[in-house]
Design brief:
CATH topology of the largest domain: Jelly Rolls
Number of domains: 2
Largest sheet: 6 strands, antiparallel
CATH superfamily of the largest domain: Jelly Rolls
Shape: globular
Order of helices and strands: EHEEEEEEEEEEHHHHHHHHHH
Strand content: 15-25%
Radius of gyration: 19 Å
Structural class: alpha+beta
Number of strands: 11
CATH class of the largest domain: Mainly Beta
């Protein structure tokens, strides 16, 4: 069975949480440090290695994260994928802002800095060579925002989410691990090429507004009052404009909100086996756990409890 390490501040004295988190961060990715309000800090992290991929899923309150240069002979790169909240990444004089779904590739061999809102992120560090073979001019893509809204980026994102859902049942067979690594590099390369060739938003003329709308949805999933009107108000535009934005993506605001809520809830069911179904429902904007269960069954073919038990059984 794969071994996943979990770290959380919930059982740590308030005054010691930030110091504990810095110790964890430095152990997981050498040289990493975190600055935040000491008395208000809360965080949770899962760490897992598959093949040559060192991965973490992390969520915390607002914080600034930095890293000192990695002293290692083998050249490596590091990917940060924003799943919730926003981030401002700075390295080698380049600054880029990430919205939910976006990602950035950087070098751990030179200092970088991340200013993050309350967030959830996926971070992967891996050898540079395998990605360099697929992206020969990789340096040109470093420290730049890579949109999460292209078809290739969505597939890449879904692959990573699916990988974490299966983490507890994952095989330790070297062939399985090597296969996962190859798929990761292939999908990462496609997502990077899409973003750099200007197809990251499908050629949409309204791409900036669409990205903002997606970010508003992701940031507001816990709000039961999130709807077309509140999205429009946040964007400073009309309800009709928001409806047209989502229509061009083949959906409606309400359908997109429900889809994202169910997807996030499914992730939490696996990541937090101790959380109740009701707690997860309320944390994702459902006022009624029975309604949440009906919607979940329609999407996944099983109740939340059945779905969680089946995946832990596997």
């Amino acid at each position: 069975m794969a071994v996943i390490a979990r770290f959380a501040t919930s059982g740590i004295a308030v005054d010691d949480r930030l110091r504990y988190w810095n110790t964890v961060a430095d152990e997981v990715f050498c040289g990493t440090f975190v600055n935040a309000e000491r008395h208000r800090f809360e965080g949770e992290m899962w760490s897992w290695s598959v093949g040559d991929l060192d991965m973490i899923r992390t969520r915390s309150v607002q914080a600034s994260v930095g890293r000192r240069p990695l002293d290692r002979v083998e050249e490596r790169v590091i990917m940060h994928m924003q799943w919730r909240g926003t981030g401002q990444h700075t390295q080698r004089g380049r600054e880029t802002r990430l919205e939910p779904g976006d990602f950035v590739i950087g070098s751990p061999h030179s200092p970088y800095h991340f200013d993050l809102s309350a967030h959830e992120m996926m971070v992967v560090e891996f050898p540079r060579q395998a990605l360099q073979e697929r992206i020969p001019d990789l340096d040109d893509a470093l420290a730049q925002r890579l949109s999460g809204h292209s078809p290739a980026a969505r597939v890449f994102n879904d692959f990573l989410l699916s990988l974490w859902r299966q983490a507890e049942a994952a095989s330790e067979d070297p062939e399985w691990s090597e296969g996962i690594s190859r798929v990761f590099y292939d999908l990462a390369a496609m997502a990077i090429r899409d973003a750099r060739h200007g197809t990251s938003d499908g050629g949409r003329q309204d791409a900036p507004l669409w990205r903002q709308a997606c970010a508003v949805v992701d940031a507001g999933l816990a709000d039961p009052d999130l709807n077309t009107g509140s999205i429009a108000a946040e964007l400073g535009t009309s309800v009709r404009t928001v409806q047209n934005l989502f229509a061009r993506a083949g959906t409606t605001p309400s359908a997109a909100i429900l889809e994202r809520r169910l997807k996030r809830a499914a992730e939490r069911l696996i990541a937090e086996p101790g959380a109740t179904i009701t707690d997860i429902a309320f944390a994702h904007g459902f006022n009624d756990s029975a309604y949440f269960t009906r919607c979940f069954r329609q999407k996944y073919g099983a109740s939340p409890r059945e779905w969680r038990l089946a995946r832990h059984a596997h």
